[in-house]
Design a protein that fits this description.
The chain has 97 residues and is mainly α. Helices cover 66% and strands 0% of the residues. It is globular, with a radius of gyration of 13 Å.
């Protein structure tokens, strides 16, 4: 699916950047066991979040914060979007306070 046709994809950064990192890594799930693809997806989103935060003066989340946002999003129809939006909010709220 292209970005233009992905209705779940957040439209604004940093959520869109985090969502794209997750989606890219998720394309490699086939052939991996569940524990491996979960770990690699968490790491990909964490890298994207830290990189974006460094470039834009936002709070860089810990890997545990990335994992907590992922756990929160589990079971949602818009899982990837919810994960990205919750984490992006954490990154921006920390800066404002």
């Amino acid at each position: 699916m292209t970005i233009e046709h992905d209705f779940f994809r957040p439209r604004q950064a940093p959520a869109s950047v985090l969502y794209d990192a997750f989606q890219e890594e998720a394309t490699h799930r086939k052939g991996r066991d569940v524990e491996e693809w979960i770990r690699l997806e968490l790491e990909a989103v964490h890298r994207a979040a830290c990189s974006y935060a460094a470039e834009h003066g936002l709070h860089a989340p810990t890997l545990e914060q990335v994992a907590a946002a992922e756990r929160y999003a589990r079971g949602s129809a818009d899982y990837g979007s919810k994960w990205a939006l919750v984490l992006a909010e954490k990154m921006t709220l920390t800066v404002r306070t």
